[in-house]
Amino acid sequence: xxxxxxxxxxxxxxxxxxxxxxxxxxxxxxxxxxxxxxxxxxxxxxxxxxxxxxxxxxxxxxxxxxxxxxxxxxxxxxxxxxxxxxxxxxxxxxxxxxxxxxxxxxxxxxxxxxxxxxxxxxxxxxxxxxxxxxxxxxxxxxxxxxxxxxxxxxxxxxxxxxxxxxxxxxxxxxxxxxxxxxxxxxxxxxxxxxxxxxxxxxxxxxxxxxxxxxxxxxxxxxxxxxxxxxxxxxxxxxxxxxxxxxxxxxxxxxxxxxxxxxxxxxxxxxxxx
Length: 273
Ligand SMILES: Cc1cc2nc3c(=O)[nH]c(=O)nc-3n(C[C@H](O)[C@H](O)[C@H](O)COP(=O)(O)OP(=O)(O)OC[C@H]3O[C@@H](n4cnc5c(N)ncnc54)[C@H](O)[C@@H]3O)c2cc1C
Ligand code: FES
Fold this sequence. Notes:
The protein is α/β, with parallel strands linked by helices.
C-alpha cells in the first residue's frame, strides 16, 4: 500500500502528497495522470501527475478538497497509507519544439503545469506561464514555476495579488503583443472554454487537458465520454489532451454535473460520522 512520504498543505483545502512509486514514475510522462483510492471502500479518483522525480521514484500529486473522497485524502497525514495507486494513465502531452508555448493553469489546474513546462522547456521552447486563482492565498506553485518558465503572469479574481481578473485577461494582452505558437490550458472547464474561444479568433493551436468523471481510467466504463468534433471519445484513453476548438465544452459541463445530488449527499453523510 503506497505510503504518503510527505504531505504539505499549500493553501486552504489544497494539499501536496508525495509517494515513493519507482515503477510508476519510471514510465510516467508529462500530461499523464493516476487513479487512486484513499482506502479499500473509497471511490477511484483521478489525479494529474504534478511532479515526478525519476531518480528517486517519487510522485507528487496536488489535491483540492471538493467532496467526500478529496476531503478524505486531505485528512491523511505524512506516514499514512492509501489503498492503491494506478498509473501512469492517459496519453502523454505531445512534446516537440513549437517556439513560444503559453501554459495556462487555473485553480488546481496550476499543479500539473510543472511537468508540462519542464518537458516543453527541455526541447527548447520559450515558456510563458499564466496562473490564476480566486485569491492571493490560493495561488500555488508560483516560485517553482518561475524557476522553469521564461515569464510568469499571475491573476487573481479579486485582485488581491498580481493582475486583477481571470487568466483570459492576461492571455488577451499576450495575444496582442506576442507571437505564440501553442497554448496549453489546464483548469476548470469554463476556463478552458474561455481560453478556447479566445484563441480560436487567432487560429492558434490550443490544447486542453479534459477532466470528465472517470472510473476505471482504461477505456472500459464509458464514464469519461466527451464529444470531440461531434464524435464520442474517451478522455482516459483518447486524451486527456484534445484540440480545444473541437471540444464540446457544454456537453462536458453537463456530464460533470450528472451526480451532483449524490455527491452532496455522500459529502454530508461523511461529515456526520
Ligand atoms: C484526468 C483528471 C485529472 C485530475 N487531476 C486532479 C488533480 O490533480 N487535483 C485535483 O484536486 N483534482 C483533480 N481531478 C478532479 C478530481 O478527480 C475530482 O475533484 C475528484 O474525483 C472529486 O471527488 P470527490 O469525492 O472529492 O468529490 P465529489 O463530490 O464526488 O465530486 C465533485 C466534482 O468532482 C468531479 N468528480 C467527481 N468524481 C469524479 C471522478 N471519479 N473523476 C473525475 N471527476 C470527478 C465532478 O465534476 C463532481 O461534480 C482530475 C480529474 C481528471 C479526470
Ligand atoms: S474512465 Fe472509464 S472509459 Fe474512461
